[in-house]
Each structure stands twice: as C-alpha cells, then as structure tokens.
Amino acid sequence: MDATPLRITPAYVSAMEKLVGAVQDLSRARDLDAVTAIVREAARYLTGADGATFVLRDGDQCYYAEENAIAPLWKGKRFPMSICVSGWVMLNAQSIVIEDIYADPRVPVEAYRPTFVKSLAMVPIRRASPIGAIGNYWSSHHRPSSGELAILQALADTTSVALENADLYTRLQGMVQTLQGQQARISEQHASLGVFTRALAHDLREPVRTLIAFSDLLRNDAEVEGDEDRQDTYLRYIGESAERMGSLIDSVSRYTRLDAPEPAEHSLCMLGDVIADVRQNLARMIAERNATLVHGPLPGLMADPVHLRQLFQNLVANAVLHNEPGVTVTIGQEVIDGRPGFFVSDDGAGVPEAAREQIFQPFRRLADRNDASGLGLAICRRIVGIYGGRITCEAAPEAGASFHFSLPDAEQPGPAMEDEMPEIANVLIVDDREADLELTELALFRRPRLHCNLRRVRDGRAAHRILSAADNDVDLILLDINMPDVDGFSLLEEIRGDDALHDVMVIMCSGSDYEPDQRRSAELGAAGYLLKPPRFASFRDIVVSRPGLRLHDDGEGLTLFRTGT
Q1: What is the distance between the alpha carbons of residues 79 and 128, in angstroms, rounded to a whole number?
Q2: Going by C-beta distance under 8 Å and a sequence separation of 6 or more, which residues neighbour residue 519?
Q3: Strands lying side by side in the sheet with 339-346
C-alpha cells in the first residue's frame, strides 16, 4: 500500500532537522555499536512512532539488534527471513506500510500478539542487496505520510553508508595494528641484532683475546715450559674463557630466539615442577655458594615450559651469583594490579634505586663477573613481555632484591577445571644436609616424576616458622631425625602437640635403622620411617596406607593430591 501524500508541515520540517543531525552523527560513527545507538533514537522520534527496531541480516535470519519502544518488542532475537516482515523487506528490497497487522498475511501475528503493535512501516537498509531494515511501530492504527516514509528511508540509506564506513574503519584499524605489530617486531629484531653485534664486538672479544694470549704463552714462552704451576694457571684461564664464550653464545642465542614469529607450544605447566627443574639445573651453583631456595604453593600455568624454566632459572641464578654466599631465595605468589602475579626475592645486598631499570638492559651489569652473561634479566623481561606482563625490581641496599611480575596471557585452568580437580599436596623436606635434601628430592620426586608443591628447609627452626604461620598448608613432612639445635623428634613432638597440625602427615628419615628410633617415631605419631637414601617404593607404601593423601597416575607421571580426609 502507498503512504499518504507528502505535505510540507512544521512537523515535517522539524523531522528533517532531526534527520540532518542524525546524518551528521552517523558520519562520525566508527563501529556498529555507535551506529545502532544513533539509529535506535532517531528511527522512533523522526516519525513520532511508538517504537522502532534496528534489524540486521544474519545469514537467512533477521537479527533484532536494537529497539526503542514504549514496551518490549524482540531485541536480541532472531527469526527466519521467510516468516518475518523485515525479512520480506530485505528479500524484496522495498519498503512496506501495514496499517492493520492482523489483516496482512505477511505478518506473523503470533509474534506480534503479545506486543502493543497495531500498525507498522519498514524500510530496507541499502536498497540494492539490503543488509538490514529499520521498522516503525504504532500502538493504534496509523498510516504514515509519504514524507515520514521518505525520512525513514533517508535514515536507512545513511545508516547503510555508516555501516560500510564503520566496517572499513574497523578493517583499517586492524591493518594499522598489524603494521604497528610488524614495526614493533622489526624494532625488537633490530634490538636483538644490536645485542648480537655488541656480543661480537665486545663481550666475545674479551674471552677470545684471553684464550689466544695464554695459548700463545703456553706454546711460545720458554719461561712457562717446565713451570707446572704457571701452566696450570694459564690452562685455568683458558678454560674459564672458553666457558664464558659458551655462556655468552648460549645467552645470545636464547635472547634472539625469543623473536621467533611462530607461537610457542603452550601446555599446562605446574610451577612446582618447573622450580624442581631449576633447582636441579642450578644444583652445583646453589651448593658451591651455600644458597637456599624455598617456595610456597604454586599454581599451574598454560605456557611454554621452556619459557617458564628460563624465566625462573635466570631470576634464581641472578640472586645466587650477585650476592654473598649463604643467600636465601624465595619464590611465591602475590596479587599485582588485581591480577595473579609472582615474586622472586632474596635477602642479599639489594640493588641501588638508580640501577633498577638499568639491570634489565642487555649487557648492563652492576658488577663485572666472568660467570654472568649480562643477558639474564633482559631475557626475563622479554619472556614476561611475550605473556603480556611486566617485570619490576624492588630493592634497597642491604635489604635484598625482589622481582615482581605477572603473566596475564599464560591462561590458568578455569574455575570448572579447578572445581573438578582435587588440590595438589604441599610437601616439606626438613634436613640439615644439602646433599641429603638433594638425594631425597631426586629419589622420591624427580626420578618417579611425582608432582606436588615441594619446599625444602635445612633446620627445625625454619620448619617450625613455616608450620606456625597463619597461611600454613603443609600436608606432608619428610623429617630428618639427627639435626643440630632442634632435632627431628623435638619437632615431631611440637607438631603432635598442636591441634592445628593434627592432619599433617610426618615421615621420619634417618641414615640408621636403629630400632629404638623407629619405635619412638611410631610412638610420637609418625606415619612411617624411611632409611636414607630413601626408596620410592617404601615412600609410596606409607603414603597410600594413610588417609589424607592420594597418589594419582595419569600415564605420564604421578601427582600427589590431598583428599581432605
């Protein structure tokens, strides 16, 4: 049916003024949300309708994206184009006016019956191959004029252009972001090339010069011939220079490999296992410098295990190498800007405030060491950046250094997974001998690939501090009997006398099978007695025979879970 003839009235002039304003607003719209917000207001008030809808074509369906009406219509719903008035408008590429919706066979009256609608007008968005429609609705029988219909169609035509502009703008924005990403990658690769050039021009030249000089002396200096002490010294210099060259080459290689364009393979990495690998890799350094590495319960992260291992290993090695012997390094969780984060701290000499940014730059060292490449913390920053995070140093002279970072893109298991999986058990090994600590961890956890949150301490007082802390959640203690100061039996008596530690399982460990010690362990409530070095089979038999812990084998390794009973 045709609309009523066009008449120039004050209402028509006012509507045209509103249309001009809507056109101006649409010309500035940069996305679909902005377009729909403008149309939902303009479509109703341009014609004085009681309701308006903004419909988009979605395949073979009509999607009612937005509405503005005196009562709810169909916002957010989809209907087949074949049964919908807006579908008819898009399929036929023409407008429609229906004065009585119950008298027109194109109207799905059951969908309209719950609404206020008595009359409607609908126009296509884009007249050739319509991509949507704009509808007006009235609560009483109403026949819009030709002017009102023309204004509504003008709004639809402008909307079509605005949608195309918004799509073009979005694609251009995507192209700009891609170009910016490519430019950032080029800048990073230039930086890596600079690192490589610096290594060749300076840091690699020094050990090469040393190696050549002392090799020449060994070959050509007559005074060295027959002097075994000098020969041994020169050979040591040569060996140290070769090791430094190897370390530098490895570090530069790791640094430049972080520019690889292909995404890394991410898998669920239990950070407790990562720290166990770090401890094993740095075992010689930790022992030689009498350092202690401790950590609390740590979660799993979806990440490249090589990245995580390198990140934590560099931070731990940095703390051990750049402090006096005897330093304690602590790894833990925290909240950074409302997100899960981590820290690696030490109780060493600290870092001057002016150097806290400098230390993350390639080859910027606070002290010249032959056993440090100068790239460790730079690699840490690159890895943290790969996962969308940021790493900072908080440190004061003589108060220790603390590195804080988050890894936002290392997706953690979701709530559903966490609800389905039991909690991983927390295990504490207490032994005053570093060698026995290492052997126990190797025999009971690393070799059998037993996953848990593992901590190690070297005396009873340190263990007592952990157990008496408000956030203590230790499930199992492997406790050495013969320790200075506070021995194992004394600590076991304290544990069994504390109601808060009633459920903690304790296994006594000793290098002797002295029967009175075994009997006293049982009397004090120990779950079992292990001879050192411990055997995993004996450990497993003790654990599975008691409530509270459960061993689970997933075919790739074992996990120790707490059962809560």
Answers
A1: 22
A2: none
A3: 292-295, 328-336, 339-346, 401-406, 391-395
